[in-house]
Amino acid sequence: MACGGGSSAPAKPKLPAPAWDWAGVIGTGQSLSVGVMGTPLSAGAVTPMYNNLKLSLGTLTAPPIPDPTSSELSMVPLVEPIRPLSAGTAEWPANIFGETPHAAMADEITALYQAAGGSDYLTAHTVVGESGMPMTAIEKGATDDGTKGRAYAASLFEVQAIHNLATAAGKTHGVGAVVITHGEADAGNTEYESQLFQMQSDYTADVQAITGQAEPVLLLVSQQESVPQQAGSGSASTLAEWQVGLDHPGAAICTGPKYQYPYFSDGVHLTTPGYERLGEKYAEVYYHAVVLGEDWQPLQPISADASGNVISVHFHVPVGPLAWDDALVAPQGVAPEWVNGRGFEVTLASAPEMIQSVAITGTGGNMDTVQITCSDTVEGQLVSVAYAYSAGSALTSTPDPNGYSYDNGTLRWGQLRDSDPIVGQLSGATQPNYAVSFYIPVPYTSPLPATN
């Protein structure tokens, strides 16, 4: 958008005021939502950068879940770790194993708001994920058996406690989003998308009953890229985490994949810089969708067609143009027919089809299409195209494009990104949007139109 004093320049939109003095964010999921045991905390995450908050339990513990009116409860600056690190218990409040994405997320939201001319945007974060647990342990109605099943009830306790403290302090409070970092334990769960949407619906109803807010609670979900680990296998939950945003616009948004982040040698868990970058991407999407009220969508396919031996996949690109990230090593261990695909996979009549080359096409900022040249005619055939979908082998001793070092990557991978120039406040890393993992037929038309 143009800016300046000229009469022909369009007016800069007014930055919306925060909906609440304290904007709540609930973090749930499994191990990637609560950090990794033994990982160092970054220096920036242990010192408050802004005025963001978390709930202190004082000397309270569970079970049972405490009284949300207890005088032991207070609001304290948001730093990592969210609570004292766990000795191995997965359940709240002893569920924190390392640095979570939340300090980075909170810092980034405030930084983006202030960079746009705002004075302050304060978020209050709740982290209730349970390491290694499936959706049935973190959803509403889960049974707390002393080892799992407390996450949802604990999150509502924290919302009520924070709301009480906000009211006592003369502050308004509501919850803007639930961030779910999950899916590994549900990789084969074909009902996962419906469970994600049910979680969003449950949180909206239950949070509104506590805070009195009219606004729904947005579900932000990132794709898991690591399970199952068998070569060539796909993941139902990975696709569901993208599809839920297409099928339920306004209720859920896929923030993108996680294959671009630095991983430990297990190919499953992120390093500390990875958690920070994940939190910053959550923050960027929260800022656009919750703070600004925009219709944000990830880098995702909106249509696909075939002509002769060429498949054209057209993308919604958050910040054009499309580009290849050559600093990321191409996927390893996938079908040999796909080694030239940069993460793309083509199946013809149920068999891997040889990809000769892939190329980004378009003009200028509208470089929004990838053309896949195949060995055989695909037009009019039973053909599908996927991206970062089939598990390969983890990368080894690969430097991160922003200078971090890590042992391995994960198992689903690709090199397609947009040109988003945002730099994370805590990580200092450039944060373009990477293409979601997907599997679609050809021809294909997305349930949602592309937006800018």
Outline type: globular
The helix/strand class is alpha/beta
> How is the largest sheet built, in terms of strand order?
3-2-4-1-5-6-7
- What is the succession of H and E elements? EHEEHEHHEHEHEHEEEEEEEEEEE
The percent range for strand residues is 15-25%
Largest sheet: 7 strands, mixed
Separation, N- and C-terminal Cα atoms: 12 Å
**Low-confidence stretches at least 5 residues in length (pLDDT < 50)?**
1-11, 400-407
Mean pLDDT: 92
Helix proportion? 10-25%
The tally of strands reads 18
Number of helices: 7
How is this structure best described in words?
The protein is built from 7 helices and 18 strands. By secondary structure, it is α/β, with parallel strands linked by helices. A 7-stranded mixed β-sheet has the order 3-2-4-1-5-6-7, with helices on both faces. Strands 13-14-9-8-18 form a 5-stranded antiparallel β-sheet, with no helix packed on it. Strands 12-11-15-17 form a 4-stranded antiparallel β-sheet. Strand 11 (344-348) and strand 12 form a beta hairpin. The longest helix has 20 residues, at 192-211. The radius of gyration is 22 Å and the shape is globular.
